[in-house]
Write the structure tokens for this entry.
Amino acid sequence: MAFLAEKLVLFGATGDLSQRMLLPSLCALDADGLVPPNLQIIGTARSEHDDADFRRFAAEALGRYLPEDRKAAIPGFLDRLTYQTLDANDVGAFPALAAKVGAADKGVAIFLSTAPSLFEPTIAGLSASGLAGPNSRIGLEKPLGTSLETSAHINDAVAAAFSEDRIFRIDHYLGKETVQNLLALRFANVLFEPLWNSSHIDHVQITVAETVGLEGRVGFYDGAGALRDMVQNHMLQLLALVAMEPPASFDATAVRDEKVKVLRSLRHLAAGENVTGQYGAGAINGSAVPGYAEELGQASQTETFVAIKAHIDNWRWKGVPFYLRTGKRLPERKTEIVIQFKPVPHSIFARQGATTEPNRLIIGIQPQENIRLSVMAKLPGLDRGGVRLREVPLDISMPNAFAGVRKRIAYERLLLDLIEGDQTLFVRRDEVEAQWQWVDAIRAGWAETGLEPKAYTAGSWGPSSAIALVERDGVTWHD
Ligand code: BG6
């Protein structure tokens, strides 16, 4: 039975994620009485602060990022906070943190949202100061390395202090309600699963489009690029949830066993099965925006867009392409999965001149949360000029279907699971490594063929070769 943490230690407590997501999520959970009554939150970072400073910092962040109707919970929440200044590179500084945390047998959840270069010294410090004992678990924010080798290195360092059942690797997409809903759609309905295979599905499209550019993350993003920033983690997790076999139950081992099988079945890309791009100056929502190189202040070969034709080599998905695309400075913010079914084997209406369009299931993840199934229907009338058919949508809008139910942000769910010790929505080491293996092979292909990102105008759907990538197969992207 997983232990309940009564202490939560936040590394990087004065950082951007803490301010925008972590503190507001924790306070929202507190407002609903969902955190353990005795929960103490110990913030730590290198900057010199005392408890009162940190509470002021938190109060300001909560004032800004917490929904109005939760603000009454702020004073009670602030009482839970304390702060310890800590240079994670100094192992001698950790005993002071351990003293602040107090009895570690109470159950300690540690959350690391710091620069990856600090992971190893932090683990060493936690270990040396007794904070990595059997009643401690650790949550790790991305990026966990930049390749299989570097991620294995970090994973080894963490594994030296924490067993795998106490390591919680975060992919915040798994905390999104609509992403979890994918599992409900597939496995709580009898309708889709019998058709969910290569006999009935023509192809799958997964799009994660963003309108934002570099957002001041120059140092990080230029060393990462779209493939490592978005595909390696979020998009491959979406792909795994779409493609996995039904797990026997909704628990951490069963779900993750099925996901890793998919990730290991990803075929290495052949030449021409991916396209990369980098945005140039253009316009987003009518406002002019600079190009990537301009934002960066220098020329760069980093890709801000990638489109891939992926294949899963197993029985279920034989011959079904999974088209993935993601990019910055695209025309709209949209995360969406499209399941394109095959046409009916024979149209009884063909002689009447009617055309049938194959069914399509569109799963909108953000910003629109909806599920839409296109079906063919007959146009009302006496059909004197022949039967006419038209595609009509069966539409479920999640906000309408569940009006009145509070919408949680991803970190609320993930932090609560970290405190309670449920690993189902966290990524296991073998998954991360299978993801990296595939991504490393793609990058090796780029190096080998000298593939360079093609320019695209900010506000467009990426380079024209991304359109050609699918059009060769008679497919169009669902824009
Ligand atoms: C992060 C990436 O993991 O996900 C960012 O580092 C990206 O570059 C972000 O903008 C997108 O997350 P969301 O939840 O806004 O889709």
About this structure: The radius of gyration is 24 Å. Residues 338 and 380 are 28 Å apart (CA to CA). Residues 174-408+425-471 form a domain with the Dihydrodipicolinate Reductase; domain 2 fold (CATH 3.30.360.10). The first helix runs from residue 16 to 31.
